[in-house]
Amino acid sequence: MEYKQLGNSGLRVPVLSLGTATFGGGNDFFKAWGSTQVNEAARLIDLCLDNGINFFDTANVYSTGAAETILGKALGSKRSEVLLSTKATFPMGEGLNDFGSSAIHLIKACDESLKRLGTDYIDIYHMHGFDANTPIEETLRTLETLIQSGKVRYIACSNFSGWHLMKSLSVAERYGWSKYIAHQVYYSLLNRDFEWELMPLAIDQNVGSLVWSPLAAGKLSGRFRRNQPMPADSRVAQGGSPVVNDAAAEERLYNIVEVLDEVAEETGKTVAQVALNWVLQRPTVSSIIIGARNEEQLTANIAAAGWKLSQEQIKRLDAVSEVLPAYPYWHQRQFPMLNAAPQLYKD
């Protein structure tokens, strides 16, 4: 397993990490992901550790805490061998302070996550989304308090826009507080919006990128095909996709899959493994979060690492998945010599 430095920190993480949204199946949305319980989760964790994957990602909102509980029980005495990432911000109840990034919510959310995980510290604590109703100073001051108390080692964010992240980094620097070392983002061959602003920002500020749903909620698994019905057991069909379902993009999806088929045949890999490997080779990507309902899926996803697509194959995948970005990004991309990631914009 290859390991990378996570942003501007001394923490090293494997290029693959296991996501646990499949643990629990606590409601209709998460049941579409999976309903993994403790025994199966323990087997998945052992399989990960046997392959050098020691990074496990969860969130308090996954099945309303059940995923954290299952992960904690499945890890048991192995806690000291692994890196744990969890998140807060999204609603965990009906109360007025049961969501957000306020001091009152974050302190409570962190303590509850620690209890469910059965640990006294969290390696990486994410703000799952940006709370525009709480001053950034309050959020970062609270996170600094959690770090100083020993409950949190590093902080990160998820699903921020460029100005959300840049302002947060600036405020942290102004007060001498800990900065977000990573940004958990959606990025795949099907949706490359991350490249427009967030990737250049990550390059400039040395923020590591942790990628969720690199297979676009399974659309790049090889099961979605032109002129074929949608797989009935897929997350998309069952209403469990975290990715916006853009019907207008279906033709583009099928074009991408056809090139993935070609590259899969050339490399002897599966369509999904090729799609994952493409993400692994992108600038700023430190780790991609893979999910699995069973050991067979996990073994297949692990095989996406340990090899590299050729530059010619990457170029073909880049070309078929390219879309015209919104302004001002299309204008900026006319001058690659001025951009932080010029290799993405060359012909």
Question: Which CATH first-tier class would you pick?
Answer: Alpha Beta
Fourth-tier CATH superfamily name: NADP-dependent oxidoreductase domain
Q: Give, in order, the helices and strands.
A: EEEHHEHEHEHEHEHEHHEHHH
Query: CATH topology, which one?
Result: TIM Barrel
Distance between the termini: 32 Å
Helix/strand/pairing category? alpha/beta
Report the β-strand fraction as a percent range.
Answer: 5-15%
**What's the shape?**
globular
Number of separate helices:
12
> Low-confidence parts lasting 5 or more residues at pLDDT below 50?
none
Question: What's this, in brief?
Answer:
The protein is an alpha/beta fold. The protein has a single domain, classed as TIM Barrel, CATH 3.20.20.100. 37% of the residues lie in helices and 14% in strands.
How would you characterize this protein structure?
By secondary structure, this protein is an alpha/beta fold. It has one domain (3-344): TIM Barrel (Alpha-Beta Barrel). The protein is built from twelve helices and ten strands. An eight-stranded parallel β-barrel has the order 3-4-5-6-7-8-9-10, surrounded by six helices. Strands 1-2 form a two-stranded antiparallel ribbon. Helix 2 (38-50) crosses helix 3 (66-75) and helix 4 (103-117) packs parallel to helix 5. The radius of gyration is 20 Å and the shape is globular.
